[in-house]
Amino acid sequence: xxxxxxxxxxxxxxxxxxxxxxxxxxxxxxxxxxxxxxxxxxxxxxxxxxxxxxxxxxxxxxxxxxxxxxxxxxxxxxxxxxxxxxxxxxxxxxxxxxxxxxxxxxxxxxxxxxxxxxxxxxxxxxxxxxxxxxxxxxxxxxxxxxxxxxxxxxxxxxxxxxxxxxxxxxxxxxxxxxxxxxxxxxxxxxxxxxxxxxxxxxxxxxxxxxxxxxxxxxxxxxxxxxxxxxxxxxxxxxxxxxxxxxxxxxxxxxxxxxxxxxxxxxxxxxxxxxxxxxxxxxxxxxxxxxxxxxxxxxxxxxxxxxxxxxxxxxxxxxxxxxxxxxxxxxxxxxxxxxxxxxxxxxxxxxxxxxxxxxxxxxxxxxxxxxxxxxxxxxxxxxxxxxxxxxx
Length: 391
Ligand SMILES: Nc1ncnc2c1ncn2[C@@H]1O[C@H](COP(=O)(O)OP(=O)(O)O)[C@@H](O)[C@H]1O
Ligand SMILES: [Mg+2]
Prior knowledge:
The chain is α/β, with parallel strands linked by helices. The chain contains 17 helices and 13 strands. Helices cover 45% and strands 19% of the residues. Helix 3 runs parallel beside helix 4 (87-95) and helix 10 packs parallel to helix 11 (258-265). The relative contact order is 0.10. Bound molecules: adenosine-5'-diphosphate and magnesium ion (MG). Residues 137, 144-145, 253 line the site of magnesium ion. Keywords: ATP-binding, Nucleotide-binding, Phosphoprotein. Pfam families: AAA_31.
């Protein structure tokens, strides 16, 4: 693990660096800053896993600065070293979520025990075995981006899962806009460019955070500029992502190329999104034919029917017969709620919790999180047989 030390005390730096280096695995004090202000002015390019703050020379402004730094390195653990002269700062630190506070002069055993605790909790996070789901639009405007982004938000907020959505569009990627008004500081292209540095905290620092549990990795905004993602990059990013997120959702768009295929290779399930209309069904068929010709086992492909209205000419059963793939879920046509949500960049679940679209996404969360333990059979009952919510 990499640590940042904030202290003017060079002797303390040497002490912590040598104690850290002696650990297995080592704690690498990769950088130091003389004060919290200095740490904020000169942020590290790569977020540290641990930030150690010596508060013995703290002053009144440091409470605010510490809070800002905890927000800046949101994924890092913080450890405070105190000589008991700044109780106010300690209280602020606790409020900012700092859990480890050690007395100065430093007792080595206490330091190691604190690092053990941090490493153990980081280990829990890194033991995640995330599931990867790809959403593919069968036709432009099918709703793949709306569903994937809003489903990500729903998974994070309703099921308390840690969720990453990656916008794999080569051009015109727009996933962040559906759920956020933040402009992405980093994109998939930046991550590929710095692929050698990738780890959980780095990946997390490249996301647009919609909530603390839901981040979006934006598509490269200008495909002419920067590095193009290569299949090898995707392998690495997904491997790291699996270790740090419960669910990784891919907004694949419609292009089938080396990069999207590599991503699809790694998925646990592929969800083509289509509307119940002939042009969509034709394109879905082409898509499924491509998958079959590539030798994909189509077992883990499930359709999501968007803008579904009961009683139409085409029925879900027909779709199943025409495409040979099961329908996982239907999302109702909900023009007002969805248009408001998309236009404002606010997840529909947040904007209109009681809307039909929001309720349908909540059902999908239930379906997918329960699917990890139950049989697929229940899904069909739910769609074709039993009534809503009767699960
Ligand atoms: N269930 C729905 N009800 C009503 N409108 C929808 C629904 N899903 C999507 N839309 C509308 O369709 C448009 C296209 O959706 P989008 O997710 O961008 O499609 P795709 O990513 O598949 O090209 C959105 O702007 C949204 O307004
Ligand atoms: Mg889209």
